[in-house]
Amino acid sequence: MIKVIMAGAGGRMGVIIIKLIAAQKDMVLSGALENEKFPGLGKDIGEFIGIGKLGVSIVSDLSKIAPECDVIIDFTSPASTMANLAVAIKAKKAFIIGTTGIDDAQKIQIAEAGKSIPVVFSASMSAGVNLLFKLAKEAAKVLRDYDAEIVETHHRFKKDAPSGTALKLGESIASGRGIDFKKNTVFGREGITGERKPDEIAIHAVRSGDVAGEHTVSFGTIGERIELVHRASSREAYGRGAILAVRYITKAKKGLYDMQDVLKLK
After folding, report:
1. Exactly one of 3, 134, 158, 204 is catalytic; which is it?
2. pLDDT tens digit string along 178-232?
3. 2-121+235-262: CATH number
4. Which residue of the set 93, 154, 168, 230 is catalytic?
5. Does residue 158 have an active-site annotation?
6. Phi then psi for 132, rounded to 5 degrees?
7. Domain 127-232 CATH (choose: 2.30.110.10, 3.90.700.10, 1.50.10.10, 3.30.360.10)
8. Is 154 a residue of the active site?
């Protein structure tokens, strides 16, 4: 049995992933991590989320439970993720990152961690979204002179914008066209912006209601437009991807991987 610790156990994604782990025949939840102010601290995580007793208490110190696991899944905040990653490195445990809002400096630290332990870090855990990354890159190669626009919509509670998925889509388009992502990307538009630049990649963020996640990549030119669309009707799509990542990382050597590796899309 693969022993898994869930960091961010009481969060929206944590609850979904714990329920999925409980339904698997080849893995078991061995730890549930939350912050010191979490109201359910000390309680059984199964009882707390309404699926019955699992025999796993919610704790706030990863270092105390890390030695007993094979894999740590982290869906928390950037600062918490980096702190938990340091513990994982010390304990020599595989680490899966689903946290969004990771900055460039933190990405460098994550890549460095891959020299010591196996790490899966992806802009999205969804299999469908990761296929979209590949399709966007291929479309960008073929539709070289088409206008590339990305629109993403998420629930009102999302703290970062644009989404990590939208940024990765932009990077995929830039890669397909052999251009610099940062130099050619604009985020939203306002005022007298002038005509659209030939290599411009635009990203727009919408926050509304309880939308789990929608991403539309549009390639347009005079006379036609093609769109690639992914809609997540629930967060379970991301949870299922995390389960696939668990099975992958337990067999992986130390290194930095993403869901493209997990799904064999490279």
Report:
1. 158
2. 999 999 999 999 999 999 999 999 999 999 999 999 999 999 999 999 999 999 9
3. 3.40.50.720
4. 154
5. yes
6. -60, -40
7. 3.30.360.10
8. yes
